[in-house]
Amino acid sequence: MSAEHPYSFFASVEKSFDKAALFTKWDTGILEQIKACNSIYSMRFPIKRDNGTIEVMEAYRVQHSQHKLPCKGGIRFSEAVNQDEVMALASLMTYKCAIVNVPFGGGKGGIKINPRNYSVYELEKITRRYTSELVKKNFIGPGIDVPAPDYGTGEREMAWIVDTYASLKPGDIDAAGCVTGKPITQGGVRGRKEATGLGVFFGLREVCNMPDVMKRQGLTLGVEGKTVVVQGLGNVGYHSAKFFREHGAKVVALAEFEGAIYDPAGLNEEAVFQHRKATGSILNFPGATNLAKSSDALELECDILIPAALENVINGENAPRVKAKIIGEAANGPCTPEADEVFIKKGILCVPDMYLNAGGVTVSYFEWLKNLSHVRYGRMEKRFTENLNTHILSQIEELSGKKVSDKERLAIMHGPEEVDLVHSGLEETMITATREIMEIWLTNPEIPDMRTAAYVSAINKVGTCYAELGIFP
């Protein structure tokens, strides 16, 4: 480990993997293959800044596993990007996809920049050049490696990527499937923006609906009435807070890098977001109390704590002061292995990132399928379903002599649109994954925590894939 990065994120992922591997039946060689990063592409390329100076960019793309293709994982723009981080995030993507039964290998990319320091034109040049470098080495394509948005990137960057790819691969009918998280007009899917936050909500709601688990945590069944603290008001934190609030939970605190705010009566994430937009800070929100440090929010009394910002925010130092009964890891790697040890002793249930924030990749999978099938979800069946439901409803009303209310009529007659089908597919995915992990954990008393159970689930699925492929000569 270098002096610059004394804490190896990849080493901590390997540590968690090794802990879980003890509860699996796989040969050491297969375990080593699952753990290893298959391909690491480290690149440097120059771009000309608006002021005429030349700057050399540092960028990466890692393909952790090709047990299923394509590889899948986001591209982040951040000054913290380094090879170790990209390797760790790529490996987490492999395990994440396996857990939620999405048939992709894990990948990840990153460019070491602070996007705030560059103009839109400069960012476009950087993104397009990065894409062309990936094309040169066959590190991108609908059947090879499919990037997505991550920290510091969004729909705009994905549109630049798909346009660059299509221009370099003329006539590739499936070119739109080379990247996900695109704008709707460029082949994106409705429901992608809120997917990760909604997946966090579906996963935690399923945990909250398990009587044995809730009894052990000393909580009542269901989401309603639970107090929630969310760290991070980006896309994931915002939508996590939104769905919990809409389903009857109380978001008592929100934290961002400039500080945190607390209101026991509950906060509205949209109002806080608008306040931050207007003032540049979430602090001094009307009716809320300011907390001196952003990290103070992590130590508040609450039922559910959702860290939705960056990695390693809960570690061996502050974990003993965490008072939440359940932690839902919406960010990638927000809790260190040392923190996990503390949670086990304190009886805190930590719902792990590697499956809880898989909403993004699940809906990315739906977008990729849409791109390969060249048809929008719901287009074929929406009208048929509506016509059929209308007919059934009129028959029931005629036979019973009773009329249904207008609100119920709309609900019954409604044919599924793309966003309905995407949300439904995501809900099914998160509920199934939660139950699979819980079954592994609760039927094996030696498994210490839910994270280890999630890794066991992932290792078993990837191991089975390797064993059945018969790739070992």
Provide the CATH topology of the domain at 9-186.
Rossmann fold
Head-to-tail CA distance between termini: 34 Å
Radius of gyration: 23 Å
Structure class: alpha/beta
At CATH level 2, the architecture of the domain at 9-186 is 3-Layer(aba) Sandwich
Q: Runs with pLDDT <50, length 5+?
A: 1-5
- What is the percentage of strand-forming residues? 5-15%
How many β-strand stretches? 12
Give a short account of the largest sheet: 7 strands, mixed
Q: What is the name of the CATH class of the domain at 9-186? A: Alpha Beta
Please state how the strands of the largest beta sheet are arranged side by side. Answer: 9-8-7-6-10-11-12
Q: How would you describe this protein?
A:
The protein has 473 residues and is of the alpha/beta class. The chain has a domain at 9-186: Leucine Dehydrogenase, chain A, domain 1 (Rossmann fold), CATH 3.40.50. Helices cover 45% and strands 14% of the residues. The chain has helices spanning 9-21, 28-35, 83-99, 120-136, 155-168, 195-208, 211-217, 235-246, 269-279, 337-346, 353-356, 359-373, 382-400, 406-413, 418-443, 450-469, and strands spanning 39-48, 54-63, 71-77, 105-111, 145-149, 227-231, 250-256, 259-262, 289-291, 304-307, 326-328, 349-351. Helix 1 (9-21) runs parallel beside helix 3 (83-99). The model is unreliable at 1-5 (pLDDT under 50).
Please render the helix and strand layout as text.
Blueprint: H1 9-21, H2 28-35, E1 39-48, E2 54-63, E3 71-77, H3 83-99, E4 105-111, H4 120-136, E5 145-149, H5 155-168, H6 195-208, H7 211-217, E6 227-231, H8 235-246, E7 250-256, E8 259-262, H9 269-279, E9 289-291, E10 304-307, E11 326-328, H10 337-346, E12 349-351, H11 353-356, H12 359-373, H13 382-400, H14 406-413, H15 418-443, H16 450-469
Parallel strand pairs: 3-4, 3-5, 6-7, 6-10, 10-11, 11-12
Antiparallel strand pairs: 1-2, 2-4, 7-8, 8-9
Helix pairs in contact: 1-3, 1-16, 3-16, 4-5, 6-8, 6-12, 6-15, 12-15, 15-16
